[in-house]
Amino acid sequence: MSSPLHVDKPRACPNCSRAKAKCVWLATDEDPEQTCQRCLRNKLACSKPHSLSKRRRGKANQSKVIEQKLDNIMALLSQERNRPIESPSSIPSNDLTPAAIQTSHQDIRSTPLHTPASYPPQDAFISIVPGFQISFSEADQVLQEYMTEMLPQFPFVLLPSLEAYEMYKHKPLLLKTILWVCRPPGPEAYVAFENWLRQHVAYQTVVLMNKSLEIVQALLVFFAWNDIFFFANSKDTSLLQLAIGLLADLGLHKRPSTTNPAFGSIVDDAADLRNDLQPQPGHSSDDRRAALGVYYIASIRCSIFGKLSGVEYTPRLDDCVGQLLQDQEHATDLLLVNLIRIRQIAIKVNDVFGNTGDHPLAEKTSTSVRAIVVASIRNELDTYISSLPEHLQSNHLLRSHCAAVRVRLLEPVNHGNRHDPLEPTHLRCRAMWDCLQSTQALIDAFLSIPIESYSSLTFVSILHLALAIIKALRLLCVEDQAWDLHTAQTMYNLPDILQRLSKLFEEASRVGKPRCGIMTNGRPMLCEYAESYKAIEHWYLSKVGMAHSDLMDSVVGHDGDQYKGFDFWNQLSDLTYGLGP
C-alpha cells in the first residue's frame, strides 16, 4: 500500500498542453491510459508523459517547520542576551543625532533597562540614552555626592546601596535618574532622557502594569531637581498624577491593617468570608519616605501654583511621620518630618484663603473674622518654629518654608479690599507691612546658602525666592489708602536685593560643578535666573513712583519685550492666587 503522502497525478498530453485544454485520459483494454479523450475525438496522435509524484504537506511536516522557526528565534534571543558590554576603549563618540534619539524612543517599548541574565563587567559603562554613558567607577562617586550634597535638600529618597553596580542590578531606573540629575549631559541628551523616562514609566505602569517603589522614587528625584520652568509650564502634571496613583496601588495610602472593618474594602470583606484574607505586607521606611515625598511635591504645587493637590494628609501619612520620627534611621529623617509638618500648615492657609475670591461668602466675611483666623494660624506657626531643635531653626529649607507660609498668610488679598474704608484697627495696613517683612525673611534665608550649594538646590528653594520677589514687587508698586508706598520703597531696597541675587547666581554658574552646565533657553540655567533678576530690577527702576495696580499687565503690554526673561515671571505670577494686592 502506497503512502498517503504520495499521490500520482497524470499530466496533460503535449496536444492538450499546447492548446491549454483539459486533458482527460481514457483507459482501454488494448491500450490502457495511453490516449486522452480530446486526442481520440480529433484523431490525433497522443502520448502520455511521465507522471510526477507530488509530496503533500502533512501535519508532521508543519510541526517540524514551526519548531525550526522557534529554534531560530530562541537562538537570536540568546545571542542578543549574551552580547558583551562594550569596553571603554570601544565606546563611540558622544555625537547625538535626532535619528538616534528617535530610534531610542521607539525601542524603549520593547527593550528592558537591562537583562538580569547577563550583567556588565564592573569596568564597563552604564548606557543611559544615546550619547550619555557613565562608568561604574564614576557612578560610585556620584552616589556619594548624592548622599552628602543632594539628600539634605530633599530627604525623601535614600539609596539602598552606595555601589552603582548593586543599584544597577536592583534599581536601574533610580540609578539612571540620579546620574542624570548629578551628571547632566548636553542639551540634546538631556531632553532625550526626559522623553525616555516618560516613555519608560508609561510603558512599565500602563502597558505592563508593573507597580514598584522604584518608579515612585525615580519620579521624586526627577521632580525635585527639575527647574521651575518645568512646573510653571505644567509639564509635571501627568507624571505626578501617575505617582499618586502608584501610592494607591502599592497600598501606601492606607494603614497595613484596617482598624475599623466597617470602612474597609469590600474585596477584603469578601475574602474574609471565604477565610481567604491574605495578610497585608508591612511598609518599610523607604515606602514611608516615598509616600511623604509625593505629598510634599503635591502640596507645594498646590500652595505656590494654586493647583489641585491630589494628595490629602491622611492618618496613614501621619503614621508614616510618627514612625520615621520614632526610628530616625537616617540623620535627614528629622528634617523630613519637619518639612511635612510645615507643609501641613501651608495647606491649611491654602484651604482657608486659597479660594477666597470664588467663595460666595468671601465679601461678607468681616476683617475681624479674617484677623482671628490669621492670628490662630500665626500662633500655630510660631509654636512650630519654637519647638524646632536649634540646628533645624537655622536650616535654610525650614526658614524659607516658614517665611513662605507667612507671605501667603499675610497677603493683602486676604485682608479686605483696598477701596474699602479703613477700620479703626487698620488690620489691613499691618498685614501688608508684615507680608513685606516676610518676603525679606524669605530672601534672607536664601542668601544664607553658600553659592557652592546653588547647583544642588531643588526647585522648591528657587520657587520660594520667586514668590518673595513677586510679592515684594507688588507691594512696592501698589496704591492703597492703607499703605505708605513711599516709606515702603525707601525701607525696602529691592534693586539692591536683585543686583545681589544676580551676581550670586552668576558666580555660582562659574563654580565648575557638573550641574552648573544645565542649559535653559540656550544659556546655563543659573545664568538664566541671573538675567531674570536683572530684568526685574530694570523694570522696577523704570516704573518706581508710577501708580499702577495691574503690575504684571503693564509689563506685558508695554515693556515686557525690553527685558528678556520677564515674560516667565509674568506667567509665574499668574499661576499664583492673590494676584492683586
UniProtKB/TrEMBL annotation:
PROSITE patterns: ZN2_CY6_FUNGAL_1, ZN2_CY6_FUNGAL_2. One of its GO terms (cellular component) is nucleus. Keywords: DNA-binding, Nucleus, Transcription, Transcription regulation. SUPFAM superfamilies: Zn2/Cys6 DNA-binding domain. It is found in: Nucleus. One of its GO terms (molecular function) is zinc ion binding. Residues 12-48 form the Zn(2)-C6 fungal-type domain. This is Zn(2)-C6 fungal-type domain-containing protein. It comes from Fusarium duplospermum.
